[in-house]
Structure formats: C-alpha cells, structure tokens
C-alpha cells in the first residue's frame, strides 16, 4: 500500500512542480520574447544610427578637420551649417540630433543642434545635463553606446556616437530616438504578446487538465489495484509490479487460511468476509511496512518480503504471522473462531525462470505445509522435492488438454470370485507422461471450479464405462461435495440423463470432515437413493468416520479403511475390529468391501470373516480402460470386461 | 555633481513615473545651494511646478516673493515688477529664454529640454552674491 502511495505522491508532486515551472517559464518566455524582440529592434536602430553618424562625422571633418569646438566658436556661419546638416537627419523618428562636447569643468555643452523641433534646440555652448552615466562611459571608451530613455517623456533610445577623429576633443553626436517609434513597434508586437499570453493560458489549461486527468487516473488505478474487502493489493497490482520487481532482492510467501471453506459453509459468507478482513489486518501488523501484501485468491495471500531476505528474517516474520493470526480467536457474533494459516515460502525466487514460476514454487511449499498438518511455515531450503506436486495451472491445463484420465480398479466378490465392481480413480498424465494420483492434485483444487469440472468428467467417464460393460462403477465424493449446489445439481442431472444405468452407480462418500448441516446432507443422500444408486462409506474406521454415519447415511456398502486391512495379518486387534465391522454389516444388511488387499493371505482372512468384497493390488491394479483389463490379477479371478 | 546626477538618475529609475517627486527633489537640491534652511519657502509663478509642494514636505509655497527662499518663475512681467528691488531671494527661471533675457537678475534656470531636466547656473550673479558654491555645481555654471 505504502509503495503505491509513495509512487503516486511522487509522480503527482512532480507533475505539480512541472506545472508551476511551466507557468513561470511561459510567462518569462512571453516577457523575454518581447524584450528580445525589442533588443533586436534596438540593434537595428543602432546600426542605422551608426551608419548615419559616420556619414555626419565624415561631412563635418571635411569642413573642419581640426579643433571643431574652436572652429564653431569662431565661425557662426559654420555653426549654422552644422545645425543645418544635423537637421537633415532629424525627423519624427530621430527627434533630436545634436553635438555636445565635454568641457574642462566636466560639463557637457552644446556644439550644434539640428533637432526636428526648433524650440527644443540648445544654444551653442549651452550646458547640457545628461542623466545617464552612459555619456561619461562613451567619452571614456570612445565607443558608441545607447541608453534606454523610457522614463523621459517622448524618448525611447538615445544613441551616442563619439567623434574619435577629433583626438583632442571629447565630442559626441547624439540621436534621441522618438518614443513614437517605440510605440509603433510595440503596437506591432502587442498582438504577438497577446498571442503568447493566450498560448500560455491555453498551455496552462492543458497542463492543468493533464494534472487533473493524471490525478483521476491514479485514483482509479489505485482503486483497481486494491481489494475492497481487505484493502490489500489485488492481482492487478501483481501484474503491475511483475515488470519491475527485482526477484534477486525479495522472497515470496504464499499464505492460505486453513479450513476457510468450512468457515464459509458453517457461518456464511458475511462471517467469512469478516475473517478475511481480520486476517488481512493481522497480516499487515505482522509484516514490515516495506513488505508487499497481495490478496492472491479467495483466502490466499501473496507476500513479497522486499528487504533483508535472509532465511532467518523470513522465518522470523513468517512465524510472527502464524502467531499473530492464531494467538487470539476472531470474535464474530459472540463466537470465537480459532483461525490458523499455512505459509509456503520461496526464499530464492531469482532461481526461478519467472515470477509465475517463483509463485508456483511458493505454492508447492504451501501445499506441503497444508498436507503436513496446516498452521505451519514451509520454507524451500532446496532439500524439498516439488516434483510430485501438481499446481492449479498444471491441473487446469491437463483438463483442457484431455490429460485427465479415469482409471478403474477391480473389486472382487470374494464368494463368487468374480469382479463385480470397479472403482473409478482420477489420474492426471503430465506432459512427460508421468501419472499423478488424486493425492497429488486434489487438495490443490478443492472447492474450485476446476474441481467441479474434474468431478463432472469423472462421472461422465464412469457412466461411459457402465454403459459399455453393464458393470457397477463407484465414484468418490467427499462430504463437502454434497453441500456444493453446483456439484449436486450436476450429479443429479447426469444420473437423470443415464437413468437406465443409475443402479450401476455407487457413490463412495469419503469421511474427510464432520457434517455440520446434517439435515441438508441426509436430504440429498435420500434423494440420490431414489435414483437406485448405491451409497458407500469410504475409509470406514478412520478420520471422522463413526457409527453415527451409518445411522445418518444408511449406506448400502461399507468400505473398510485400508489401514485396518494392512494390519490384520499381524495384529489381533485389527482382526477383531474387522470381525466386528463384518458382523455389524451383516446385521444391518450392509455389504462390506476391504481395501488394500495385497496378498492371498489377507484375502483368506477376509473370506473367513465374511467380508463381501475385496479391492487391492492382489485383486488388480487400477488400469486405463483404453489399454484393456488389469494384467496383475491372478488368473483365477474372473473379469467382467 | 555626481551627487545630483545620482539623485536624478536614482529618481528617474525608482520613481520614473513620478515626475512630480523628481521635480521637487531637484528644486530642493537647487535651493540647498543657496540656503541651509531645512524648510524651504518658494515663491512660484510657473504652474508646471505647482505639484512639487504636494510631494515634498520640506518645500513650502509662499504668496509673497519677499518671504521666499527661492523664486521660480516663467513670467517675463515678473522681472519688470522686481526690476529695482534689491536683496531678493535667488530667482530661477523655468524658461531658458527668460533666463537669457534676464541674466542680470536670474541666478539660474531650471527647465525641461529634449524631455530632460536641465540646470544652468549664472556664474556672474553667483560669484557676486555667493562666494562659494559646492564643487559639484561648478559644472552648471555658465
């Protein structure tokens, strides 16, 4: 959050400064342009005046080659001639044209005056009072110069040209250029000035509009990057930082709220949202200000540790997250919800090809944390193999590319020694031809759309098998599937479409969680039974399974958990439990299936205890129907396929 | 001289648009050549200089030239009125033409020519009536 805010503030400040600079620059430019133009014109005027001054000097030198002051003092007609000569150059533009000299006392005095306005002419030898130091500097430097006279009424520029040919005299020829000239020029320049000001205003408006647009854009962008519920970044932000994040200086963690689905199912989405909000706040508190938190999925959070990414620091922060979240329950509607989180960390994302791969690696660590008991942190220390874990994208691609296969494992009727049933088992074949079993991918997709798609494909394949061979096929469901309206509707829809074959279908219910909404669950089980499908309880004797399930579900089949079967050769208690289950099944007229039948000795005990059916590698391994029946069954077993 | 140039230049630069202040400043400087009084009483017949009293608290307008420390005039008839009088305060013509005609009475002239303020001091009268004037004003003597 801080990162985005900072960059936004920086950019906005930059734009504001730019705007101010532009305003100042534009005004300066408009004024400077005018001054520049004016200077250019003055330069032209200077050149013109200089040209005239040279001509006048040449003329006067011709008639008085030496000692001009004395010549003019003595010779009145010469004074008149010079006055006349100067007057030839005086007009409305060159308002006053006159000669002055610097006397011994340092006073300027008129030598001649040919000014256009006769009343303004100075007398010979009359004191002249200059008001600018330029006059003195022209005498000293013996170089022409000019001075601006805007403060003197009707005058614009005074051009001063020293008569250097009279070496012992300090004589200056003066042109006072009329203000009218300046006004005329200004009138020409005024529209340009106005145009420049208008352009400046227009540019400022455009700039203001850009600043405003940028402000709105960033506000919108910020909004689009923030998850409205948790106020953390969302995946849009991930796309944004993807381009410039330096994987060498960060570590990536993926955190997932444990059993969040159950919270949602049990307490509703409103409380689920409160849990998400609270977890987000606790994540913010537990991480550092410069770490980046992104709500990655429903209950998944992506964390970028951006500084000090050594293993010890990451471990410390990750454990702090676990403690912060689990240390106190979330209080909602007078209930205390004990929520935990699992975290998978990829401390060396730079070792991955891309950010996506780095996240996948963190996801695999998260998977290990989940399967390892949840409420824990798993950091990839390069010793953990992630080869046998399929992630969401890989599963999605496999389904899209028809690499999801239904394998079928035979189930033997022990008394008739015939295969009477098959269990449909999902397999994903990866691009290299490696086969992945449900344990390697189902936890990753539970409660996702992909899971529903996978369930549908498996059901379709199961019915296809049933229709082809008129044989009973069982398909696995977990308790949660019966609370998923989409899955339930899809199941009933497919049964209706294959109603002729529905009695061949067995639904094996995996007891992987307690049933919170018993009424809804039993109602749906009862409804399914009306289609003549068989209901089996899977893994009976493990996990959440209990006799209560038998009462609630009233199953047709009990599938005894493999962990009990595997022990019956050596463990008397296991044998006793098996015997008890068998007797219960017989009393309740429930068929029994034993899993994990790996040898003949186990099969014999099962037969001895009146177990109805057997399933396991001794009976037959799961097989791909496209490749034909399993080749591992003993020759005595009769296959239906 | 440098001082007065500086004053004029500075005045023009800083108060370029306030001609009235400029005129008052120059008149005050001229008066200070002939008197050490802090408050300078001026008898003025030239309306062009009427505004100097509004802008300078040290310049006071008087209606009788007898009471004045300095006379400013552009009126030729004025010289007829005072022709025979002695011990008059210094008279400054505000027209160069008048000054030229009445060099025997005028101590100097302060007038606008070519858009510039011009000061001319009458050396004959000054030398007669005032033994010394500040060095910087020697340049204005003619």
Folded structure, characterized:
The complex is a heterodimer of chains A (641) and B (142). By secondary structure, chain A is of the alpha/beta class. Helix content of chain A is 47%, strand content 19%. Chain A is built from 19 helices and 22 strands. In chain A, strand 1 and strand 2 form a beta hairpin. Chain A is rod-shaped, with a radius of gyration of 50 Å. With 142 residues, chain B is of the alpha/beta class. In chain B, strands 2-1-3-4-5-6 form a 6-stranded mixed beta sheet. In chain B, strand 5 and strand 6 form a beta hairpin. Chains A and B meet through strand 3 of A and helix 1 and strand 6 of B.
Distance between the termini of chain B: 15 Å
Write down the CATH class of chain B.
Alpha Beta
Topology-level CATH name of chain B? Rossmann fold
First-to-last CA distance of chain A: 62 Å
* Low-pLDDT sequence parts of chain A: none
- Give the second-level CATH assignment, the architecture of chain B: 3-Layer(aba) Sandwich
Spell out the helices and strands of chain B N to C.
HHEHEEHEHEEH
Major beta sheet of chain B, specifics? 6 strands, mixed
Largest interface: A-B, 26 and 23 residues
Q: Percent of residues of chain B in beta strands? A: 15-25%
**Number of beta strands of chain A:** 22
User: Rg of chain A from C-alpha positions?
Assistant: 50 Å
Cα Rg of chain B: 14 Å
Quick tags:
heterodimer; A: 641 residues; alpha/beta; eight-stranded mixed barrel; six-stranded antiparallel beta sheet; 47% helix; B: 142 residues; Rossmann fold; six-stranded mixed beta sheet
Secondary structure elements and their pairing?
The complex is a heterodimer of chains A (641) and B (142).
Chain A: H1 2-63, H2 68-74, H3 76-87, E1 94-102, E2 108-113, E3 127-128, H4 134-141, E4 145-148, E5 155-162, E6 171-178, H5 179-225, H6 235-242, E7 251-257, H7 260-267, H8 269-286, E8 292-295, E9 300-305, H9 311-326, E10 330-332, E11 335-337, E12 341-346, H10 355-371, E13 377-379, H11 392-400, E14 404-413, E15 418-429, E16 435-436, H12 442-445, H13 449-469, E17 472-478, H14 485-497, E18 505-510, H15 518-529, E19 534-540, H16 547-553, E20 557-560, H17 562-565, H18 572-588, E21 591-594, H19 600-608, E22 613-615
Parallel strand pairs in A: 12-13, 15-17, 17-18, 18-19, 19-20, 20-21, 21-22
Antiparallel strand pairs in A: 1-2, 1-6, 2-3, 4-5, 5-6, 7-9, 7-12, 8-9, 10-11, 14-15, 14-22, 15-16
Helix pairs in contact in A: 1-5, 2-3, 7-8, 8-9, 13-14
Chain B: H1 2-14, H2 19-34, E1 40-44, H3 52-55, E2 59-61, E3 70-73, H4 76-81, E4 91-93, H5 96-101, E5 106-113, E6 116-121, H6 123-129
Parallel strand pairs in B: 1-2, 1-3, 3-4, 4-5
Antiparallel strand pairs in B: 5-6
Helix pairs in contact in B: 1-2
């Amino acid at each position: 959050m801080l990162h985005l805010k900072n960059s936004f503030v920086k950019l906005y400040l930059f734009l504001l400064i730019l705007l101010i600079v532009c305003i100042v620059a534009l005004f300066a430019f408009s004024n400077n342009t005018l001054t520049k133009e004016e200077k250019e014109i003055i330069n032209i005027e200077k050149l013109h005046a200089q040209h005239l001054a040279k001509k006048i000097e040449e003329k006067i030198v011709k008639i008085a080659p030496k000692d001009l002051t004395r010549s003019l003092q003595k010779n009145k007609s010469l004074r008149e001639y010079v006055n006349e000569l100067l007057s030839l150059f005086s007009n409305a533009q060159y308002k006053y044209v006159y000669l002055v000299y610097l006397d011994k006392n340092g006073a300027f005095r008129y030598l001649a005056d040919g000014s256009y306005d006769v009343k303004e002419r100075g007398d010979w030898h009359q004191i002249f009072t200059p008001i600018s130091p330029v006059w003195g500097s022209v005498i000293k430097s013996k170089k022409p110069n000019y001075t601006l006279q805007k403060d003197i009424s009707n005058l614009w520029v005074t051009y001063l040209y020293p008569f250097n040919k009279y070496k012992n005299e300090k004589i200056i020829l003066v042109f006072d250029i009329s203000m009218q000239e300046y006004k005329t020029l200004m009138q020409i320049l005024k529209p340009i000035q106005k145009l420049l000001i208008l352009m400046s205003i227009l540019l400022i408006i455009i700039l203001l509009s850009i600043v405003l647009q940028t402000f709105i854009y960033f506000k919108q962008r910020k909004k689009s990057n923030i998850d409205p519920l948790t106020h953390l970044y969302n995946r849009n932000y991930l796309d944004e930082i993807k381009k410039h994040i330096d994987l060498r200086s960060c570590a990536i963690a993926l955190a997932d709220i444990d059993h969040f689905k159950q919270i949602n199912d049990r307490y509703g989405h409103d409380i689920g949202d409160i849990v998400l909000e609270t977890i987000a706040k606790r994540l913010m508190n537990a991480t550092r200000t410069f770490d980046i938190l992104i709500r990655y999925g429903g209950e998944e959070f992506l964390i970028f540790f951006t500084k000090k990414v050594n293993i010890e620091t990451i471990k410390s922060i990750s454990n702090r997250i676990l403690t912060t979240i689990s240390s106190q329950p979330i209080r909602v509607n007078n209930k205390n919800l004990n929520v935990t989180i699992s975290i998978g960390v990829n401390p060396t994302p730079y070792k991955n090809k891309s950010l996506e791969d780095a996240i996948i690696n963190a996801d695999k660590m998260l998977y290990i944390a989940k399967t390892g008991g949840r409420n824990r942190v798993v950091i990839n220390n390069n010793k953990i193999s992630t080869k046998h874990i399929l992630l969401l994208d890989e599963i999605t691609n496999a389904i899209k590319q028809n690499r999801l296969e239904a394998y079928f494992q035979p189930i033997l009727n022990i008394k008739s020694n015939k295969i009477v049933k098959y269990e449909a088992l999902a397999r994903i074949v990866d691009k290299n031809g490696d086969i992945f079993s449900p344990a390697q991918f189902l936890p990753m997709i539970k409660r996702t759309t992909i899971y529903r798609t996978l369930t549908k494909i498996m059901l379709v394949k199961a019915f296809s098998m049933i229709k082809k061979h008129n044989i009973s096929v069982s398909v696995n469901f977990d308790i949660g599937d019966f609370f998923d309206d989409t899955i339930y509707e899809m199941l009933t829809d497919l049964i209706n479409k294959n109603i002729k074959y529905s009695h061949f279908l067995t639904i094996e219910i995996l007891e992987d969680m307690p049933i919170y909404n018993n009424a809804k669950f039993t109602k749906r089980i009862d409804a399914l039974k009306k289609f003549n499908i068989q209901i089996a309880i899977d893994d009976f004797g493990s996990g959440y399974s209990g006799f209560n399930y038998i009462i609630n579900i009233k199953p047709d089949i009990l599938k005894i958990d493999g962990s009990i079967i595997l022990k019956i050769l050596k463990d008397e208690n296991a044998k006793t439990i098996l015997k008890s289950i068998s007797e219960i099944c017989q009393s309740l007229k429930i068929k029994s299936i034993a899993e994990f039948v790996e040898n003949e000795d186990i099969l014999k005990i099962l037969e001895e205890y009146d177990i109805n059916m057997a399933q396991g590698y001794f009976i037959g391994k799961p097989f791909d129907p496209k490749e034909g029946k399993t080749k591992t069954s003993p020759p005595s077993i009769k296959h239906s396929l | 001289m440098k001082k007065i140039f500086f004053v004029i230049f500075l005045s023009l630069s800083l108060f370029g648009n306030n001609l009235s202040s400029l005129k008052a400043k120059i008149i005050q400087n001229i008066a200070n050549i002939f008197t050490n009084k802090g408050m300078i009483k001026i008898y003025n017949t030239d309306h062009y200089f009427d505004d100097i009293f509004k802008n300078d608290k040290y310049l006071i307008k008087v209606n009788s030239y007898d009471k004045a420390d300095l006379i400013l005039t552009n009126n030729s008839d004025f010289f007829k009125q005072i022709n025979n009088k002695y011990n008059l305060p210094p008279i400054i013509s505000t027209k160069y033409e008048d000054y030229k005609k009445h060099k025997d009475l005028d101590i100097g002239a302060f007038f606008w020519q070519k858009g510039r303020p011009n000061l001319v001091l009458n050396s004959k009268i000054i030398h007669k009536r005032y033994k010394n004037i500040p060095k910087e004003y020697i340049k204005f003597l003619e």
